[in-house]
């Protein structure tokens, strides 16, 4: 399944009443399933996660606990920020968030901005998305159109919730995952092996 | 129960350091195992050597020595001198009362189970549970066996008679034959320790794992003429004895109805437990009517009665087989003396042990080519047995010849589908060959054979690992570890998965666990090396790869990785030398060629690098990374059209997204001067 599989990022306006059709361009609706291509893997297990504010008991840990029942709840002024700082420069291509309008209503984010950079001092926005009553996993690709722009190389990623549905102040996000390419099984090799003959000999198990 | 300390206490009381270790050879063997599990390798080796001296047929002790890497040449251990000694021991045993046979019925079962239990390391746990009195029983085991044999009436000399005659002789088991069987069984069973000897008749009945009811069940099954047991025996026998067992099987099987109580007596009186082979022939707990190659450690008590059954069956069938063999040789000759038969038997036995022992020793030292040569010397029926084929497969695996390894493992698995030993390596071979379907099929089969065996779960884990589902793979490997924490490979596989998940702390922990179990487990040394390489701790990496290389000096992949560590340490000359070695030792391995080219590029020796890549192209013509590197070199040499061409080919060969980005970017920038190339492009 493609990265944009939560499907309704259609450019053309759809006819009203069509199930699942997005009324406008770029409005993500969320997918019940997390679908990520096999050649990607979750990148942020060893990263440092922090949030701009949180309610006690609904802190940053809830974003990474693999439970869709727990959520992060912000507690302050917008924008609400989730900061992810990696130990070294990494290649990233996909951000996936789990949000649920049915459960969270006015706490559900409606506008998200993704920024990247070396640190807090030089973050630049790389992507903005609008969400419309999303329920489920929202896949946000960080790639450009050109294959050369599949990945961003960065030390830090910041996910900013700029606005919520129904003008809610605080936000709920239940889970966030960050994806990038798999490392080369042969360390320090610039290219991956593609052929069976090479892969067979490339490691000892 | 893992009460190693108590076990040690029992065998070797601290307050009496000069007391002779009870149970003689087996006692030493057990003590050796205890020392090994608690990390006292030198002491373990000493104990095993002692055990072997006391009982040269204690295969398990020799096996352990091999695993520790300190075994002597098999020719030394299984010599003519020992042959004579064994012979003498046999003839000097006194006769037992015939009435003992009956006792043996009862006694045997618990003893069998006891001895069987004894065999597997896990069963050491049970030792402490027993009173000390039981342990001393073991030294008498072998003697007892001999006693039993010798008490048999004079018909003994007729061991060369075919099965029908056996019944006539009311179950006389010729000592030499019996010995042979015992020995054969022991040796071919390689994996399981040879637990010789039935408990001496004089021993009080031990824990009654088997009660009388089971005994009856056993005998019932034993004489099941339906051939249910026959396939077991036949498979085992063909493995055990170097004769064509087919005719014999039918002989035996056909005698179902002839098997009188005399036969039963024979069976029960034969201390067959010796046979790990007999154990081998233990049917899978689930009652599959197929010979099991291995003593399924996971099926302890449950299987014990079955094993016992099979032991009995096995022994008797083995006997008949062996008998049949001589029968074939000389039907009329019924008056050969016991002694000369014994001598022949012992000689042959030792000859077999020598071959298998030498082969095993060499393969533990990773002198795989030599080991293979030795195994090939075995006669075909011996060669075509599960254990030997697995060893051969393993040897090819260590030589990084996965296709051959696959061939042999597959054959082994087909011959004895219930063998679990070695199947974890087989699953790795299939992993390397990217045979997803066959691997998942194997995993399912193994799980259905025994859900509690670590090897089966290793295979399942390898399935998931092949699909890159590292988390599930990890769970399965952890399960394997739980089932038996003394299987080093399970720990190593956990380590690999943690490494793939980039959880280096845990991966190091598991690799270290593996090394605690088996210091010569080079895969774990390698795994640690890779972790340190990734963490850029290059000196640690080099150290660990070198340790791995010292243990297995034939693996071209190890040589290559050692070279990579040297290159990272900027010792390029040494690195290149290592790569040359790797290339030389296995011409089919593309990795060292590629790595050598990388090093040469780093040294700006572009033309040599290209030459190397051309040689690589011969064995891996459709390798994207090779063309990508060539493109980069041509760019450096300013041969721009070739550079573009190579990048184009590289792209066509469908590299992963990360490489795609790099190569495309490089292609676009071919015509730009170098200064504008970003560092992380190539």
From TrEMBL, chain A:
GO BP annotations, alphabetical order: anaphase-promoting complex-dependent catabolic process; cell division; protein K11-linked ubiquitination
- Composition-biased stretches, type Acidic residues, lie in 1-11
- Where in this chain does the record put each DOC domain? 19-205
Swiss-Prot/TrEMBL keywords: Cell cycle, Cell division, Mitosis, Ubl conjugation pathway
Where do the record's region annotations for Disordered lie? Answer: 1-26
Q: Does the keyword tRNA processing apply?
A: no
The record's section on CDD domains has: APC10
InterPro entries recorded for this chain? APC10/Doc1, APC_su10/DOC_dom, Galactose-bd-like_sf
What's the superkingdom here? Answer: Eukaryota
Q: Does the keyword Methyltransferase apply?
A: no
Q: Where is the composition biased (Low complexity)?
A: 12-26
What Gene3D superfamilies does this protein's entry cite?
Answer: Galactose-binding domain-like (2.60.120.260)
Record's SUPFAM superfamilies?
Answer: Galactose-binding domain-like
Q: Which GO terms describe its cellular component?
A: anaphase-promoting complex
What exactly does this protein do?
A: Component of the anaphase promoting complex/cyclosome (APC/C), a cell cycle-regulated E3 ubiquitin-protein ligase complex that controls progression through mitosis and the G1 phase of the cell cycle.
In which family does this protein belong, per the annotation?
Answer: Belongs to the APC10 family.
What is the name attached to this protein's record?
Answer: Anaphase-promoting complex subunit 10
Q: Which organism is it from?
A: Aegilops tauschii subsp. strangulata (Goatgrass)
UniProtKB/TrEMBL annotation, chain B:
Q: Does the keyword Nucleus apply?
A: yes
Question: A single GO CC term, please?
Answer: anaphase-promoting complex
Spans of the TPR repeats? Answer: 25-58, 454-487, 488-521, 522-555, 624-657
One Pfam family from the record: TPR_2
A GO BP term here is:
anaphase-promoting complex-dependent catabolic process
Q: Which UniProt keywords apply?
A: Nucleus, Repeat, TPR repeat
Name the SMART domains on file: TPR (SM00028)
> Where are the stretches annotated Disordered?
186-270
Compartments it resides in = Nucleus
Bias category Polar residues: which stretches? 241-252
Cited InterPro entries:
TPR-like_helical_dom_sf, TPR_2, TPR_rpt
Q: Which family does it belong to?
A: Belongs to the APC3/CDC27 family.
In Swiss-Prot or TrEMBL terms, this protein is called Cell division cycle 27-like protein
Name the species this protein comes from: Aegilops tauschii subsp. strangulata
- Read off the lineage from the record: Eukaryota, Viridiplantae, Streptophyta, Embryophyta, Tracheophyta
């Amino acid at each position: 399944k493609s990265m944009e599989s939560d499907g309704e990022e259609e450019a053309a306006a759809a006819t009203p009443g069509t199930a699942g059709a997005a009324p406008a361009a770029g409005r993500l609706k969320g997918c019940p399933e997390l679908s990520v291509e096999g050649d990607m893997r979750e990148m942020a297990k060893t990263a440092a996660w922090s949030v701009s504010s949180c309610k006690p008991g609904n802190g940053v840990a809830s974003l990474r606990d693999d439970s869709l029942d727990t959520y992060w709840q912000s507690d302050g002024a917008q924008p609400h920020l989730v900061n992810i700082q990696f130990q070294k420069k990494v290649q990233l291509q996909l951000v996936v968030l789990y949000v649920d309008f049915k459960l969270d209503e006015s706490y559900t984010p409606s506008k998200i901005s993704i920024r990247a950079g070396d640190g807090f001092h030089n973050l630049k926005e790389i992507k903005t998305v609008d969400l419309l009553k999303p329920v489920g996993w929202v896949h946000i690709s960080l790639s450009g159109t050109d294959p050369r722009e599949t990945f961003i190389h960065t030390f830090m990623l910041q996910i900013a919730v700029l606005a919520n549905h129904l003008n809610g102040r605080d936000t709920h996000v239940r889970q966030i995952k960050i994806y990038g390419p798999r490392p080369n099984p042969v360390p320090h090799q610039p290219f991956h092996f593609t052929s069976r003959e090479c892969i067979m000999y490339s490691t000892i198990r | 129960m893992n009460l190693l300390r108590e076990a040690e206490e029992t065998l070797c009381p601290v307050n009496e350091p000069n007391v002779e270790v009870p149970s003689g050879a087996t006692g030493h063997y057990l003590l050796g195992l205890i020392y090994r599990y608690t990390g006292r390798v030198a002491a373990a080796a000493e104990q095993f050597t002692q055990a072997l001296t006391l009982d040269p047929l204690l295969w398990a002790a020799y096996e352990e020595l091999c695993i520790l890497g300190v075994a002597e040449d098999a020719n030394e251990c299984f010599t003519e001198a020992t042959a004579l000694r064994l012979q003498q021991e046999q003839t000097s045993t006194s006769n037992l009362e015939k009435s003992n046979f009956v006792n043996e019925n009862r006694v045997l079962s618990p003893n069998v189970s006891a001895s069987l239990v004894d065999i597997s390391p896990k069963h050491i746990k049970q030792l402490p549970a027993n009173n000390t009195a039981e342990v001393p029983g073991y030294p008498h085991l072998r003697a007892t066996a001999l006693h039993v044999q010798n008490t048999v009436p004079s018909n003994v000399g007729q061991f060369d008679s075919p099965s029908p005659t056996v019944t006539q002789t009311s179950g006389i088991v010729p000592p030499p034959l019996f010995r042979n069987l015992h020995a054969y069984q022991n040796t071919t069973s390689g994996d399981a320790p040879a637990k010789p000897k039935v408990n001496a008749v004089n021993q009080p009945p031990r824990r009654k794992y088997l009660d009388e009811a089971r005994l009856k069940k056993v005998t019932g099954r034993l004489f099941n003429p339906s051939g249910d047991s026959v396939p077991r025996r036949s498979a085992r026998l063909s493995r055990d004895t170097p004769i064509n067992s087919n005719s014999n099987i039918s002989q035996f099987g056909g005698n179902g109805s002839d098997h009188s109580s005399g036969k039963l007596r024979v069976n029960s009186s034969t201390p067959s437990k010796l046979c790990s082979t007999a154990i081998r022939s233990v049917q899978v707990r689930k009652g599959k009517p197929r010979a099991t190659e291995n003593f399924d450690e996971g099926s302890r008590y449950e299987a014990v009665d079955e094993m016992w059954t099979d032991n009995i069956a096995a022994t008797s069938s083995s006997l008949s087989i062996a008998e049949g063999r001589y029968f074939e040789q000389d039907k009329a000759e019924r008056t050969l003396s016991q002694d000369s038969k014994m001598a022949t038997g012992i000689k042959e036995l030792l000859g077999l042990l020598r071959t298998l022992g030498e082969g095993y020793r060499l393969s533990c030292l990773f002198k795989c080519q030599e080991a293979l040569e030795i195994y090939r010397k075995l006669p075909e029926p011996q060669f075509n047995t599960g254990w030997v084929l697995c060893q051969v497969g393993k040897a090819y695996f260590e030589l990084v010849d996965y296709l051959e390894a696959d061939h042999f493992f597959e054959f082994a698995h087909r011959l004895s589908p219930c063998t679990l030993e070695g199947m974890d390596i087989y699953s790795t071979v299939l992993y390397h060959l990217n045979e997803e379907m066959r691997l998942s099929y194997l995993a399912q089969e193994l799980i259905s054979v025994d859900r509690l065996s670590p090897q089966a779960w290793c295979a399942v884990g390898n399935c998931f690992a092949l699909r890159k589902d590292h988390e599930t793979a990890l769970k399965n490997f952890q399960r394997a570890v739980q089932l038996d924490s003394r299987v080093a490979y399970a720990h190593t596989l956990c380590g690999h998965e943690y490494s793939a998940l980039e959880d280096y702390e845990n991966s190091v922990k598991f690799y270290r666990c593996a090394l605690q179990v088996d210091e010569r487990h080079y895969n774990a040394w390698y795994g640690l090396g890779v972790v340190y390489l990734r963490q850029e701790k290059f000196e640690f990496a080099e150290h660990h790869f070198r340790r791995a290389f010292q243990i297995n000096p034939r693996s071209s992949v190890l040589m290559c990785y050692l070279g990579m560590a040297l290159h990272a340490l900027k010792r390029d000359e040494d690195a290149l030398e290592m790569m040359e070695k790797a290339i030389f030792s296995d011409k089919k391995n593309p990795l060292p060629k590629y790595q050598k080219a990388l090093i040469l590029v780093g040294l700006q020796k572009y033309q040599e690098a290209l030459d190397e890549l051309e040689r690589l192209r011969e064995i891996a013509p459709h390798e994207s990374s090779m063309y990508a590197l060539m493109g980069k070199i041509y760019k450096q040499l300013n041969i721009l059209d070739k550079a573009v061409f190579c990048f184009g080919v590289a792209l066509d060969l469908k590299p992963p997204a990360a490489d795609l980005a790099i190569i495309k970017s490089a292609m676009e920038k071919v015509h730009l001067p170098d200064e504008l190339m970003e560092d992380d492009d190539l």
